[in-house]
Amino acid sequence: MNEFVKVLYDEHDIIISAIEIAKKTDELIEKDPVKFEYILGQLIHFFRQYADRFHHFKEEEILFPEMKQKNEMIGLGIIHEMLDNHYEFRGLIKQIEHQVVLKKHKEAYALLYEYSEKLLDHIAVENDELFLMTEQLFDDAELERIQFRFEDCDRDLGYESKEELKNSLQLLIELF
Ligand SMILES: [Fe+2]
Ligand SMILES: [Fe+2]
After folding, report:
1. Topology (CATH level 3) of domain 3-173
2. Domain map of the chain by residue range?
3. Whether the model pTM is above 0.70
4. What is the model's pLDDT at position 1?
5. Other CB atoms closer than 10 Å to residue 6's CB: what's the count?
6. Which pLDDT tens digit goes with each residue over 43-64?
7. Ligand 2 being an ion, which residues bring their Cβ within 5 A of it?
């Protein structure tokens, strides 16, 4: 497997572990609403920063354009669908945040659940279809170029803050 595809798979695994935490938060709605609000705030931060700023950004700015350039049909089909999903995810996160501010916890959880399920489907399509295409699409020089662009991107955003975001999930798990 190419190194940059492995980076994306690994990021998906981290995002899935955040989704698992998100799905558990319903047990706190009645029991500990203050904790519920706190954890949702942390998850919103994680999804915005890690899932969107680090992960979706590399897909949107680097991988998808590189793939589109090699094959226009992929651009019109699966990549278009993936970009639509990213857009919808941003809207859902905004709505979840809004419901938390209004203290509508059940509504916030329902939206978080919807977000979680849609993100899991999205990750499955990328893992099982999209990422596998990269093996056939790119030659060695292209793969290496994409790899360097990925490294530049994560370095610019900050490896340290990426690690901190990942570790923040462990702290959340301990709150249950
Ligand atoms: Fe994606
Ligand atoms: Fe992804």
Report:
1. Four Helix Bundle (Hemerythrin (Met), subunit A) (1.20.120)
2. 3-173
3. yes
4. 82
5. 11
6. 999 999 999 999 999 999 999 9
7. 126
